Structures are given as C-alpha cells and as structure tokens.
Amino acid sequence: MSTKSKQGPHREETLHLGAHRGLWGAFAGLITAVLIAYPLSASIAFATHPATQRLFGGRLESASQGGFQAFWWIVALGCLALPFIVGFGIARMSARTLVVIGAIVVVFLILVIVLGQMYLF
After folding, report:
1. Is the whole model's pTM more than 0.70, yes or no?
2. What is the per-residue DSSP string for 25-85?
3. 5, 43, 54, 68: least buried by Cβ within 10 Å?
C-alpha cells in the first residue's frame, strides 16, 4: 500500500512582510549599494586607468591589458548589479527566487575566479 497522498496544484509560499515588500526590497538594495560603493568605484578605476596594472606588480604586469580591463569591468558590472539582485530577492522572498539569486551569485563568483586565473595570475 502506498502512503503517498494526492497533491493538488502547488502554490509557492512567500514570507509575509505585509504590503510593503517592495519598500523592504528597495531599502535592502540601498543598504547594499552603500556597502559596495567603494569596491565599485575602485573596480571602475582599475578598468579605466591604464597605469593601475602596474600597481599589482609581479605576474600581473605581464598580463594582457585587454584581459586586465575585461576582468575589472566584469567585477564592476557584478558590483553594480548586486543591489538590484538583493532588492529583488527581498521583495519576492520566496524559496525559489532565493535559490535562483543564489545560483546567479555563485555563477558570477566562479566566472570572476576563472577569469582572474586566466588573465591576471
């Protein structure tokens, strides 16, 4: 005999933040934007100024300038997207949305590590 019960249509559960979910998402995005403002400006500075490649010294000086700039532009775009991703995740706050956002962050980190190994080190 089977112990499985019949299941109807599955509704995705969300955490109850009330009618102000969008405001909480915007607030979380704003806090994240404040926290990443300095790394964002530094990554844009590294990407746009050609002399910054010499700041890192060693093997990084011999890396191609295009690879160096591409790496820092990808880091800058990731930093720029982070407040929007966090705000959207807080506003939606469902298990599925958080898993998708977590997967995007993991893929971004893997991409940065791989590009860093290929072009910088």
Report:
1. no
2. HHHHHHHHHHHTHHHHHHHHHHHH-GGGGGGS-GGGGGS-HHHHHHHHHHHHHHHHHHHHH
3. 5
